[in-house]
Amino acid sequence: MSRTVFASFENIAQARRAVRALTSAEFQPEEVTAYSASPILEPEFLPPKQQKSWISRYAIFSGFMGALTGYLVPTLTASKMNLPTGGKPIASDWSFGIVYFELTALGTIAGAVFGLLLEGRLPRLKGKIYPDEFADDLTEGGLVVSVTAEPPERLEEAECLLQDAGAKKIKTV
Amino acid sequence: MKNKSEQMTDQKIHEDLMRPLLVTRRRFYVVVVLLALAGLWGLIAWGYQIQTGMGVAGINNPVFWGVYIATFVFFIGISHAGTLISAILRVNNAGWRRPVTRCAEAITVFALMVGALYPVIHLGRVWKFYWLIPYPSERGVWPNFHSPLMWDFIAINTYLLGSLTYLYLPMIPDIAILRDRVSGWRRKIYNVLALGWSGTPVQWHRLEKAISIMAVAIIPVAVSVHTVVSWDFAMSLNPMWHSTIFGPYFVVGAIFSGIAALIVAMVILRKLLHLEAYLQPIHFNNLGLLLLTMSLMWFYFTFAEYLTTWYGNMPEEMASFQFKVNGPLSPFFWFMILMNFLIPTILLAFRRTRTIAGCFIASVCVLIGMWVERFLIVVGTLSRPRLVFAWGSYAPSWVEISVILGTVAYFILLYVIFSKLFPIVSIWEFKEGIHLAQHEIVEEESPVMAD
Question: Which of A69, B26, B302, B424 has its CB 3.0 to 4.6 Å from that of B419, i.e. a possible disulfide?
């Protein structure tokens, strides 16, 4: 059974050093994770593979679906319900254009949120993310790096590497 | 690169911005109780109106839209404080936006929630409101998508949903910090709201991406909302409503009152929550300049609107024009000019008076002036319809005034509770700004050290 080593660092340079050391020691990038209370977008923490995002595509697709809904709902229902229009066409792009537009925007927003939840692997409501004692380190401006040691024999190696990089606190769970 | 002093700064930021959430003084409860009582009074008045009928409101033929609709337009206007301003500043990467955005975005959400109540209140038979919602039913009633009121319903709901999401997404990392810092029932709530946020690089990357997309998508929605509200008026053939510039005129007025609402909220929050280090004079200076710009633009649009009517000299239009400018509503008209143009321009044009106090006074004037403007638009036209025999007048009843006071209290109450539950200044965005600034300084001083 694999175990995870958590280590807190006072600053981003130490955390970066730890991540570099772990990946150099052939820990897989997906086994190494950093946590921070402020954005960390440096390439060491976010390899090119993880930088690829489909959020824009989700937003565009969802926006398109919104536009289609905005077109179909008023147009089809207006024709079916025979509403009085004062001599104007029963389905009119001029007045329905506002509905198309609003639903396109709503679809785009929904797509972006969907993409964030999907790619950010949210929501995750059960289980601890990191041990409680690391929470204060994060709010004080520190970073936490975790590594899943598999096979477990590599546990000690991971701990040593994290210690050498300047870890303030280490815990294995 | 982070150093020791920066860590202290991070810690201080957390302490300063989370203190109002964790420490509750007696003053907070007093404010909440007073606002709740005022809100309750409004609710009682509304209940009385529902039970007795719309006759207890001052509205009647020909003035069938009164202060309810004026206040609806006003609240939808101040909702432009947040999402629009925040999104524009975010898209332009204006660094000074960081402490301002959340105060602003919260105004948007609560102003929309309160503003959207008004068509329901005005409806009288509130239990029939759901007829506006398009869904197949055995009644065979289907809303007419050609109607500007239907556009309103769709636009306001889109903006509300978008703004709520736009407020919530950037709050997730801060809620996660709170989740880790509190215990008891609060922890349970924050745990759900944080969605299991852990702050991994992938999550940060995706969050920034989603926020960027939303910022771009929400700007046209915000503009469309107030344009659609203006079309409630402009699509009719009433004098001084049937105008092609009503859309942009309303949008300008909305941004104008929105910035004013934001400044007022910021000054009060700064004072009560001791946020002097975060909401600094530079923020008020920049927002003051924006307010000045909008004041000038508002005056330009108002002048263009009134000049065109005056120059056209059409009898129906001139009746409404004279009623507002020289007639019974003229004190309101000139008061509006004073509050929306003269006072803000004088106060904000000079650096010496463009202080926090100066911005606050100007903003309060603008909020009052913009409500009066909405009142003049609604009542000024409806009191002077095209047919002379139908001319009439209007004065709001105690029920209408009570409902308005109640909803204003409700709006403030929502804001107060929000600022008690969530950091009113975005912690991570503020920290990010400081880190970026420090990074830039290090890079300038020594490119090698920047690593």
Answer: B424
Residues of A within 8 A of B169 (CB-CB) are 113, 116
β-bridge partners, A172: A5
d(CA B226, CA A137): 45
**Cα separation of B342 and B383, whole Å?**
27
Beta bridge partners of A148: A4
Q: How far is B3 from chain A (nearest CA, A)?
A: 7
Whole-angstrom distance, CA of residue B413 vs CA of residue B408: 9
Cβ pair B217:A105 closer than 8 A: yes
Q: Which amino acid makes up residue B417? A: I
Provide ipTM, 2 decimals: 0.92
CB A131 within 8 A of CB A171: yes
Contact residues on chain A for B432, CB-CB shorter than 8 A = 38-39
Q: Please give the model's pTM, rounded to 2 decimal places.
A: 0.91
Distance CA A168, CA A111 (A): 40
Q: Which of A35, A77, A99 sits opposite B200 (nearest CB)?
A: A35
Contacts of A103 in chain B (CB under 8 A): 154, 158
Q: Which residue has the tokens 């254009």?
A: A97
Q: Which of B356, B215, B204 is nearest to B276 (CA)?
A: B356
B163 within 8 A of B224, measured Cβ to Cβ: no
Residue B324: partners with Cβ closer than 8 Å, 6 or more residues away: B240, B330, B332, B333, B376, B380
What is the tens place of the pLDDT at every residue in B104-127? 999 999 999 999 999 999 998 899
